[in-house]
Amino acid sequence: MQDTQRRAWFRRTGWKKFWLRLGLLAILLMLSLMGWIHWRLRGSLPQLTGEISASGIATEVDIERDADGIPTIKAKSRTDAAYALGFLHAQDRFFQMDLTRRLTGGKLSELFGELAVGTDERYRKHRFVSLAEDVVNATPENYRAVLDAYTLGVNHGLLQLGGQPYEYLLLGQDPIEWQATDCILVMLSMMCDLQPMDGTPELSLGVLHERVPEAVFRFLVPTGSEWDAALDASLYEPPALPAAETWSLREVQTAENSAATYKPPALDPWSPFGSQRGLDGDFRVGSNSFAVGSARSKAGAAMLASDMHLGLRLPATWYRAVIDAPTIRGVPRVLVGVTLPGTPLLIEGSNGEVAWGFTNSYGDFGDIIELKAAPGLPDHYLTPDGPEQLTRYSEAVSFPGGTREIEYFWSKWGPVVAEREGRRFVHHWVGDDQQAFDLRGIELESTTTVEETLQIANESGMPHVNIVAVDTAGSIGWTVCGRVPRRPTAAPIIPVDWSTADMHWQGYLPPSEYPRLVNPEDGILWTANNRIMGDDYLKRIGNGGYDRGARARQIRDRLQAQASFNEQDLLDIQLDDEALFLQRWQALLLETASQQAAPVSKEFVEQVTHWEGRASITSVGYRLTHEFRQQVINRIFGFQVAGREGLGKSIVKQGAFAKHTGIQEYVPIAYEDASWVLITQRPTHWLAPEYSDWEDLLAEAATSTERELTLEQPLASATWGQRNLVHVNHPLSRGVPLVASWLNMPPTQLPGDNNMPRVQGPTEGASQRLVVSPGYEQRGIYHQPGGPSGHPYSPFYRTGFQDWCEGRPSPLLPGPPQQKLTLKPVK
């Protein structure tokens, strides 16, 4: 009986104690694991105070940080400053640097597995690793010393961390030390982002050119835009609308002529910068730079404003720093601005005498060449010197768990980037040439005048960007950076034949032949990815896909409308979200909504009528107008929304233009200009056959706009802020969603859109904002959507984000130092 009672007691209490103890043990194990992970993560935070011995410097270097973590480097030589900058970059941003070099070098798969093989293949065919080696080997001794010092600093900074950067812990990988060639790979990554490294615009325009008559092609791909705001005031007469006897969209071709053709690659999810366009030709990113001379400044000093727009990610693209050290020429300077993790240079900012800023030039620095096959000789092509054989490369792309063999071909003019219907296309691109890259841009840190700055810019091997500069004498100036090819004719926009010598490049332009503008009479300059000049400029620089110019015009008009400016005035222009571009679309929508054919609600009309005229987060009318324009253009040019599976999930059907041409992907044509001509003139032969008249098309676009935005919500909730919900995320949050809230910024509704100075999209926007007058940096303004640290445990991970969101004029110069770290040379 006692045994039975004991067993019953154990059943009542023993198992409870057992499970309780097991649960407590599991909790202790979990807490221990969390504590270990916490300890490992904290171990990868950098040391901010004290002293560290460094064998790569000649004299002592101090690194001070303010309350936001912004570092100031105080060194006695440019090489020691480069070492300290490399040390900081590695301590705060090594994983970001590693991703960038791996992207360009075609080695992302080693970290992320087979998912990244396609991206690796795309980059490897350009042989950037070999190119980087050639660039480093050709680097002059004084520049190489800076490069080597930076590399030593990076590797010391990585080793000095108490543990490997946390990203590698999450991925179960180990970091690999930095090489001097990796700095060139980072420079190359920016070039690849700012330009189509595979020549996709010319490839798609080539398809269009083959499918439509010449007059139709010229109408869709004009030389200029009605929105142009060039610095030389040049304008181009828009081409005439082709008549019905030339081409008619009503005569839609049959399915066999509507097969998919060459498809340009989508936005690379691994790109650290993320530039792209939408199907309607709108920029998804766009940079601005503008300047006023001393006569237009309230303080009597020239001022620069620059906001480089890129994809938004964490950590932020740029690493803000102050470098108080002699320049490479031995001149003492205090450099203030932004650096790019992975490179030792001040990219943009002020050297105390000159300030400079950049925008992508969107010139044309590569040609697509259609290889002419040599009869009877496989893998041979014709050249002016006779047939030549393509060089075949075969490589193994390694990833955890396996390898995949890839194959690609090179011609004497560059890599084969596309094959279509037995035809091969090569991209002859400046970015594949060793001469396109050097460290001459470091000389900008020493310049004293605008003229000298522009000269250095013309002589430098770097991405092809507009540079706007101002100096302490009150001068302002503009030119284009990078190597510009000398072509025998205007830059072609469709594939060309190089089997004869007629179209071959003839080296690069000397600096004396670069376009420049210094101290214009009205004392203002502006660039916004638009066409800057005409005539010779277009022949030399070409058209690589200019923005239509609405942004540039709005900036120009703001500058012309005011007699003088201070720093806040220029920031106000950077933050300008007035919807001047959409005014005519709003009027068209109201006109359409008044017709009986468009049964939209009274509330719809009221919201559009009282739309605020800005891309504000509270405006429903702005969103309706924006969506209506998109609906109209999509109905004209081939991608029609047939319905939606909830908000943002479009079901598309192929439209008449796509069917007629057989092109199913984005083609860089003048969507806005062509659409407005068609809407204004309303020619029947350009109307898709499913519509009885243009009023029918517009009415369907209006009713579809309301229907889609009210599927899951009342119309009053469909604000622009709901649509423009900005996500600034860490790249690892996609693969490790459990830590997304820890890694990412909170989603934030922000004003702004395309075609206005404040370009803002859900994942794109101003990567920084800078307003500065050289010599008066204490009055300068700076914004960045994230702090210097790439570590979420750091108090400096999220600094600056709210100022960037709200447009508060935060100071350019760091505040008083809060921490000081000294690098001491090893004796």
How much is the average pLDDT? 90
Terminal Cα span: 85 Å
Number of helices: 24
**Beta-strand proportion:** 15-25%
Shape: globular
Radius of gyration: 29 Å
Quaternary state, please? Answer: single chain
Helix share, percent = 25-40%
Largest sheet: 11 strands, mixed
Q: Which strand order does the major sheet show?
A: 1-29-2-3-7-8-9-10-18-19-20
Total number of strands:
29
Uncertain spans: 254-267, 276-281, 640-652
> Which structural class is indicated by helix and strand composition?
alpha+beta
Describe the protein.
- This protein has an 11-stranded mixed beta sheet with strand order 1-29-2-3-7-8-9-10-18-19-20, covered by helices on one side.
- The chain has 827 residues and is of the alpha+beta class.
- Helix 2 (78-105) crosses helix 6 and helix 2 packs across helix 8 (180-194).
- Mean pLDDT is 90; it is low at 254-267, 276-281 and 640-652.
- 52% of the residues are buried.
Report a brief summary of the structure.
This protein is of the alpha+beta class and 827 residues long.
Please outline the helices and strands:
Layout: H1 2-43, E1 50-54, E2 61-65, E3 71-74, H2 78-105, H3 109-112, H4 117-124, H5 128-137, H6 141-160, H7 166-171, H8 180-194, H9 200-211, H10 214-220, E4 288-292, E5 303-307, E6 309-311, E7 319-326, E8 332-339, E9 346-350, E10 354-360, E11 366-370, E12 380-383, E13 386-389, E14 391-399, E15 402-411, E16 414-420, E17 423-429, H11 450-459, E18 465-471, E19 476-480, E20 516-518, E21 524-527, H12 536-541, H13 550-561, H14 567-574, H15 583-593, H16 602-609, H17 620-637, E22 639-644, E23 650-654, H18 656-661, H19 671-681, H20 694-709, H21 720-723, E24 725-726, H22 732-735, H23 740-743, E25 748-749, E26 764-766, E27 769-772, E28 781-783, H24 801-806, E29 819-825
Helix pairs in contact: 2-6, 2-8, 5-8, 16-17, 17-20
